[in-house]
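BACKBONE STRUCTURE TOKENS:
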Amino acid sequence: MATEQNQDAQDLGQEQAEQKTAESQAETEQAAVSVEDLQAQITQLEESLKLEKARTANAVYEAQKSVERIQRDAEKHKETVIEKFAKELLETVDNLERAIQAAGDIESPLLEGVQLTHKSLLSTLEKFNVVEVNMNNGFNADLHQAVGIAPDVKAGEIGTVLQKGYALSGRLLRPAMVLVGQ
């Protein structure tokens, strides 16, 4: 009986040792699998990080391009508004010049006030790059609009200026209306 008990105890001890060995083998396999899984997961995360970096760089590039486009559009809009405003002011310049011509040689405080207003308006237009079109170099179809013939003037020369022309920042705002020689 004692031998049977010893045998049973040995068998039990051996079973426990086998269980421990099996458990440690399972833990080792799990650890090996876990390391491989972790390495795969790290690789996957690195690829995701590269993708997100590329997306972020693309988003930053698109944002910069959008800002540049908005600035260009704002500048174009500003130029268009200034151009429209300047065209409207040119009618006032023309009216002031007609008033000065109508007064003739008679000096009066009223004429002096009109002349000062005219000068001030031209000065303001020049601040915004609105300048008179050059009339000294003869007729230029890009800058002048021929509306008639001046018989006493040489061919290609400007005779009478009916309405002055103006340019805004180098672009023609309004052509000069002139009579030219034939």
Summary: The first helix runs from residue 2 to 103. Residues 2-128 form one domain.
